[in-house]
Design a protein that fits this description.
- With 232 residues, this protein is mostly helical.
- Helix content is 67%, strand content 5%.
- The protein has helices at residues 5-8, 12-28, 40-47, 51-63, 84-94, 102-123, 126-139, 146-161, 167-184, 197-212, 215-230; strands spanning 36-38, 67-70, 76-79.
- 26% of the residues are buried.
Length: 232
């Protein structure tokens, strides 16, 4: 890694880690609706981050329907009642108690990628583009380990789907991504090291297609991504 690498890491990546940690806490401890997770200050101190980073994590959790923020002396961050769309995404992965395959989840997520990319092309803002480019740039850092490359890959796809106003697509895709990511984190270290050049090239083209607002170019970039995933 070179000395400039820390500048390449997206600021939101730490916020994502905090959001995932709090979501995992809610699930593992089966915390009820209305349970107080803490105040912004107590959570900021717990995770050792700047106020802006904690605020971004809270924003992400609020957008996913996981928490609600209450102001005042007795306020703080509380476990929320999930919205209909969040419950739909979670129920989709329960499948009436049947075992859910990571491969099946990946297959469905991969089929949704073209729609996610086109939706991002239609609705992206200047801030969205800035953050997408930061993530794509970070994926191409020299000597990047596979685990970190994969984390950035997931973060890029997560950031793309957050752009769409289609709540069914957003919550379904994020539920699939969370499921796959949680199952693969423990085994990703066993994946043989490989070059990232093709992946970096394809994902950078996706970002630039989104920036162009050209839906046809976005569709071509999505097709190239499908080929990459399929190993073609």
């Amino acid at each position: 890694m070179n000395d400039s690498e820390p500048l390449l890491a997206p600021r939101t990546s730490r916020a994502e880690e905090i959001a995932h940690s709090l979501e995992a806490r809610i699930t593992a401890q089966m915390l009820p609706i209305g349970h107080r997770l803490g105040t912004r200050e107590s959570l900021r101190s717990e995770f050792g981050v700047a106020p802006a980073t904690l605020s971004e994590a809270v924003r992400l959790l609020s957008a996913r329907g996981a928490v609600t923020v209450r102001p005042g002396a007795n306020g703080g961050i509380f476990v929320a009642a999930p919205s209909l769309f969040v419950r739909l995404g979670r129920k989709m992965l329960e499948l009436s108690g049947e075992t859910v395959s990571v491969a099946d989840s990946l297959a469905v997520r991969n089929c949704l990628d073209p729609l996610v990319i086109v939706e991002a092309t239609r609705h992206r803002s200047a801030r969205d583009l800035e953050e997408l480019r930061e993530l794509a740039e970070a994926m191409g850092a020299p000597e990047l380990e596979w685990k970190e490359y994969l984390r950035l890959n997931w973060a890029l796809h997560r950031r793309m789907v957050e752009i769409t106003p289609n709540r069914v697509l957003r919550h379904t895709y994020l539920s699939l991504l969370d499921f796959v990511e949680s199952r693969l984190q423990s085994v990703v270290a066993d994946v043989p090291e490989r070059g990232h050049e093709d992946g970096v090239r394809v994902h950078r083209e996706i970002v630039e297609a989104i920036a162009s607002e050209d839906v046809e170019r976005a569709a071509r970039a999505a097709a190239s991504h499908s080929d990459l995933v399929a190993g073609r």
